[in-house]
Automatic annotation (TrEMBL):
Stored Pfam families: GntR, UTRA
Domain HTH gntR-type: start-end pairs: 1-59
Keywords: DNA-binding, Transcription, Transcription regulation
Name of the protein this chain belongs to: GntR family transcriptional regulator
GO-annotated biological processes: negative regulation of DNA-templated transcription
A Gene Ontology molecular function term of the record: DNA binding
InterPro entries membership: Bact_HTH_transcr_reg, Chorismate_lyase_/UTRA_dom_sf, Tscrpt_reg_HTH_GntR, UTRA, WH-like_DNA-bd_sf, WH_DNA-bd_sf
Keyword Transcription: yes
Hydrolase recorded as keyword: no
Length: 220
């Protein structure tokens, strides 16, 4: 079953056969089948719905050429985005924040750390920093980008750096994966139309649930 999921023959959202059906089809004991299903759940390949059994975890493909926030991205896929706020603080910028956001030492920033979920499944841990003037005292709600847009500070372009990594215990606990599981570390540096930097976000995405796709064209 693991191979069927990894090869894409069982697609995201597809229900798994019941334990009884699997026992009959494989000739294995119920204990063995249940243990195998538990392993798939711990590895993030399947999810469970109360009263509805198990189903294949949806896989998200994200084009690298599109600048879009997490909430809007999930909405266009028909999924419900939700956030668990880990911390939300304001303060003066550190040297790295001053450099990347073009701020003076006296210009405060908002630091927002969240777990981002799709249909209650955690997909990413996100740490965002924006100038405080861009959000003011507004309630950010689920979407930081919507708040920036309302205040007239919507980014129009961004630079992203991606690298593969291994989830440490803290990341693994937040993402509900096993420590040592593959993840993607992504740093996004976003800019306004006038070229001013407006956002720096560092995220850790589940490697088993998120693919980033780039279209390449041959140079003339």
């Amino acid at each position: 079953m693991r191979q069927l999921i990894e090869r894409g023959e069982l697609r995201g959202g597809e229900a798994l056969p019941s334990e009884r059906v699997l026992v009959k089809a494989t000739g294995l004991s119920r204990v063995t089948v249940r243990s195998a299903i538990d392993d798939l759940f711990r590895d993030g390949l399947i999810a469970r719905r109360r009263g509805a059994g198990s189903y294949v975890s949806p896989h998200v493909d994200q084009p690298l050429s599109v600048l879009i926030g997490f909430t809007a991205d999930m909405a266009r896929r028909g999924a419900e985005a939700r956030s668990i706020v880990l911390s939300k603080t304001t303060g003066l910028p550190d040297p790295e924040e001053m450099l990347k956001l073009g701020l003076s030492p006296s210009e405060p920033v908002l630091r927002l750390s969240r777990v981002r979920l799709s249909d209650n499944d955690p997909l990413a841990v996100e740490h965002a920093v924006v100038p405080l003037f861009a959000v003011g005292s507004a309630d950010i709600g689920e979407s930081l980008y919507e708040t920036l847009k309302r205040n007239g500070y919507m980014p129009v372009r961004a630079l992203q750096r991606l690298r593969s990594a291994i989830a440490d215990k803290k990341e693994a606990d937040l993402l509900r994966v096993v420590a040592g599981s593959p993840i993607l570390h992504i740093e996004r540096h976003s800019f306004l139309a006038n070229g001013r930097a407006i956002e720096v976000t560092k995220s850790s995405y589940r490697g088993d649930r998120y693919d980033f796709i780039a279209e390449l064209k041959l140079e003339p």
